[in-house]
TrEMBL record:
Topology in membrane: Multi-pass membrane protein
Name of the gene: ttuB_6
InterPro entries: MFS (IPR011701), MFS_dom (IPR020846), MFS_trans_sf (IPR036259)
Pfam families: MFS_1 (PF07690)
GO molecular function: transmembrane transporter activity
GO cellular component: plasma membrane
Residue spans crossing the bilayer: 26-44, 64-84, 96-115, 121-145, 157-177, 189-211, 257-278, 290-311, 323-342, 348-367, 379-402, 414-434
Alphabetized UniProt keyword annotations: Membrane, Transmembrane, Transmembrane helix, Transport
This protein's name: Tartrate transporter
Domain of life per record: Bacteria
Residue ranges constituting the Major facilitator superfamily (MFS) profile domain according to the UniProt record: 30-438
Subcellular locations according to the entry: Membrane
């Protein structure tokens, strides 16, 4: 009688303990490193909010000009996001992340040497072009390893990197601005870009050596574990087969695709307040020490991390995405809408930023469980990339609106009210525009 190997995943009545072991191994192999990469991504994308406290006077930026510069990041991002995702599907994640991270690290560090608004604008466009494809690429990469019923919790954990980045970025950026200004004749904001940009270059080189493109190529999995993963992913694809899109052009003919795109358009509106304008809002409430601003700006990310994880876990448990997204949108809208009323109260401002951050992060993580479950595997690469790319119009318009309001009305209140309205409309786009039956997910 032949004895089954100890690595077999079918040696129990249900297979569940073994399945958990396989997914645990995959998660611990892939997620920690991708998590760190995403921390670097948001650190390099959002540190301009802290640099703005110091460098706007040096290069002559008004609030409106700064808002335009922030928005220009998304122009470069949009232009290269879909091509990057299609390239990842063709050549794999290792080569794709090598290119993305090395380039964005170089551009981010190079922002230390801008001297004019025009140079700042160019640097932001180049940073967006360099980073384009990282986030949707990782979302696509998860579909190669995890079935839909597990992706919300994996995505939520991955996106907690945004919170970690915010927790790190505030105190670190504040300390750099306070302590390193004048060292070797460089300003504090120049050191900020240099020290926070270069680690991404190292991470990109490591990604090429460390990651595995597909389960069948994973030398760190047994043959039984590979077969199990591939069979689970095949079953997942079959669940969506009845609603499969033959090409992205077929998907583009469906109104649901545009409801999804508008829903994602609403997410950057909330993110701009949290990532870019929060330091300025805190400073205007009367806090002038950069280190203290950094510490206060870190608090909302701690709350946001817990809220995002709980929302993702509950969404997976109920296998419900739409109303969880709507609840997150309402939290973001509520927190942002009340910020102008608390403009002179730093403690209340931080509490409202906690609510807004929890809502924004919930929207972001929950949204990206929907397109992979809605789109067939044949168009997932282009579909996810296109939704993400078109949604970046929100990243262009939001900072421009807030910056314009700050410059021309002497207050950002009108811009913040606009953010609240767009957040609510984004939630309604998912609830009203995407029927529950259109999201194909199976319970394990």
């Amino acid at each position: 009688m032949q004895v089954a190997p100890s690595s077999s995943i079918d040696d129990s009545a249900t297979g569940q303990p073994e399945a958990e072991g396989v997914y645990r191994k995959v998660t611990w192999r892939l997620l920690p490193f991708l998590f760190v990469c995403y921390v670097f991504a948001y650190l390099d994308r959002a540190n301009v909010g802290f640099a703005h406290l110091q460098f706007s006077k040096d290069i002559g930026l008004s609030d409106a000009a700064f808002g335009l510069g922030v928005g220009l990041f998304y122009v470069g991002y949009m232009l290269f996001e879909v091509p990057s995702n299609l390239w990842l599907a063709r050549v794999g994640v290792r080569k794709t992340l090598l290119r993305i991270m090395v380039l964005w690290g170089i551009v981010s560090a190079g922002t230390a040497f801008v001297h004019t608004p025009t140079q700042f604008y160019i640097a932001r466009v180049l940073l967006g072009a360099a980073e384009a494809g990282f986030f949707p690429g990782v979302i696509l990469y998860f579909t190669y390893w995890f079935p839909a019923a597990r992706r919300a919790r994996v995505t939520s954990i991955f996106m907690t990197a945004i919170c970690v980045s915010g927790i790190i970025s505030g105190p670190l950026s504040g300390w750099i601005l306070n302590s390193m200004s004048g060292l070797f004749d460089y300003k504090g904001w120049q050191w900020l870009f240099l020290l926070e940009g270069l680690p991404s270059v190292v991470a990109g080189l490591f990604a090429y050596a460390y990651l595995t493109d597909r389960p069948e190529q994973a030398t760190w999995l047994s043959d039984d574990e590979k077969a199990f993963l591939l069979s689970e992913l095949k079953r997942d694809a079959q669940t969506k087969a009845g609603r499969a899109h033959g090409s992205i052009w077929v998907a583009l003919k469906e109104p649901k695709f545009y409801f999804l795109t508008f829903a994602y358009f609403s997410v950057p509106w909330a993110s701009i307040v949290v990532h870019i304008w929060a330091p300025s809002v805190i400073q205007k409430s009367g806090v002038t020490n950069f280190w203290h601003i950094g510490l206060l700006s870190a608090i909302p990310y701690v709350v946001g991390a817990a809220a995002m994880y709980l929302l993702g876990r509950n969404s997976d448990r109920m296998l419900e995405r739409r109303w969880h997204f709507m609840a997150s949108a309402l939290m973001a809208a509520f927190g942002v809408a009340l910020l102008p009323a608390a403009a002179n109260h730093a403690g209340v401002l931080v509490a409202l930023l906690c609510v807004a951050t929890a809502g924004y992060l919930g929207m972001l993580s929950l949204f990206w469980t929907i397109p992979p479950a809605y789109l067939s595997s044949t168009v997932a690469a282009s579909g996810i990339g296109l939704i993400s790319s078109l949604g970046q119009f929100g990243g262009i318009s939001a900072p421009t609106v807030i910056g314009f309001a700050s410059t021309h009305f002497g207050s950002s209140a009108m811009g913040l009210y606009a953010v609240s309205v767009v957040s609510i409309l984004g939630g309604l786009a998912v609830v009203l525009g995407i029927p529950a039956r259109a999201i194909s997910e199976r319970r394990e």
